[in-house]
Amino acid sequence: MMINPFFFRDIPSTDKVFISNLLGEWSILKSREELYALVSSSLKGGQLNELAAKGFYSESDTEALSFSKAAELNLTAKFSKGLFRPSLIMVVPTLRCDHDCAYCQVSRAPLSSVDHELEMKPAQIAQAIDKIAAPAFKLEIQGGEPLLRPRFIIDLVKELRVLRGHGFDVVIASALGPDMSDDFLEWMHTENVSLSVSFDGIPSVHSKIRKSRLFDSFERFKQQLKRLSDANLSKNVGFVSTITREIIELGPRKIISACSDLGIRRIYSRPIANYGFATVTKKLIGYSRKEYSDFLEAYIDEIVKSFQRGEVFFDEGIGLYLSNLYSPELNVHVDMQSPSGYALSACIVNYDGNIFGSDEARMLFESTKNPLLPLARISGSELLENNIEGHEGLISSSFSECSPLCDTCAYMPFCGSDPVHHLASQGDFVGLKPNSGYCHHITDIYDILIKKIGNGEITNKMVVSWLKR
Ligand code: SF4
After folding, report:
1. Which of 60, 248, 395, 453 is the most exposed place for a label (fewest CB within 10 A)?
2. How many CB atoms lie within 10 A of CB 45?
3. What are the Radical SAM core domain coordinates in residue numbering (predicted)?
4. Domain boundaries in the chain?
5. Probe ligand 1: pick from 9, 21, 433, 438, max atoms within 8 Å of CB?
């Protein structure tokens, strides 16, 4: 028996050890003793067969060579994802917003602003998108509050249909503040538009943290959900929540019961970002790494309990990591790719005509105005490219397989890199991982999931049910 290269990590607060390899296979060993037995090739029976089948062992030189070839092919497939045009195109028709969320990461502009609208015609934007987008892509309309510009959205989609037919899907990210006319709702229905709606899980927190000067934001959210339901659009609505200190203090059970009351079965939760106004407000509404990981663990416990009660609630923010563990080849999340999906799988056309390689890059630009951040600029019918040297450097620094510490990390086959996060927080594209909020979040969530899978709290049946859509 020969051992093939593998990674290992002691799972905190257990005796167990997580092992993984470049094929994206993994297993949980009972103890360090089992790890030593693996290394000394003294494992026996079913466990030996299972680990050999996952590529941790080879029986001969030929098999070891096959492992190397398979690992090479796996890496080639992973790296090749970036050789195509971006499949996620975001457009910001306005940075104005009717909400005043405490953790706003995009540095929203006031409703009355006249300087934060995309002035170019939809046809011009559609032509630019046609030049940069993959044959099949998702068009995500971002803001500010994009529903302040329904006519622009309709016209942009119309122009793009002329150029690209039905080769793209449309999703609008909104807090649902503005009125939606009957015509607009009908258009959304006809175009099968999805809505990614902000809802902070607990009504009182939503009204307080995601507040508006114009209305009670939770009441408004509820009215608008009803309107969408009446227009037969409920199935097109997804929910995104930002976890704040208040939510952590109130506890995860409250999120699940509030969502059940509203008929929400799936939500996508995420921690407060490190961009825009959130960089300041985080001191008031944020939390420590430990507080967040304790919350996550309690949240996962509650989701497990709710599954055991026969309920169907799930958080897709957790599902992203489970999906990476069980199907790493399906990962398309921009910040969880190696190399980063920056400009390779995503692009964003900003309200000012600048084009960025990721949503986070435009957020960082809004607060720094660093002229090196835009990739290009739309001017008239032309696409003016900026010097791409820095962007090439960003992408070439984003291979986790050769980043310090990532290159020996057991979670690396299921992780990625977020160069803009590290640029914003540490001043370079790679970042020192022991100081990286990105790395902390990922290691903590995988540690919790692996611990719960290892001790049988999370079962295969749950994973299959949660990841089924
Ligand atoms: S970012 Fe952290 S968790 Fe991800 S591969 Fe690197 S060291 Fe591991």
Report:
1. 60
2. 7
3. 83-309
4. 1-76, 87-385
5. 433
